[in-house]
Design a protein that fits this description.
Elements lengths: L2 H37 L4 H20 L7 H18 L1
Helix pairs in contact: 1-2, 2-3
Amino acid sequence: MFGFLKKGSDNKSQDSQEIDLQAETISGKISELEQQLASNPQAADTQKQLMLEYNRALNIFAKSRHYRQEIDPLFVKIDELRNTIRKSF
């Protein structure tokens, strides 16, 4: 009788697992790009890619329970990257 409720909870569990997986993937890309930028701070392409990944991460991290606490530090990183980009021009 209440089978429709059970299916909804299964979908939510799968969705949260998928979101956590996406968050983990984006976090790995961000770490990789941050390392590249640390070795070459003037690399404009790396700066652009990193800013795009930061913006993608905001959306995904907000949906993920495991990565939600990373949103505030992410805003700080975005501000730092913007300042770096401004200084390079």
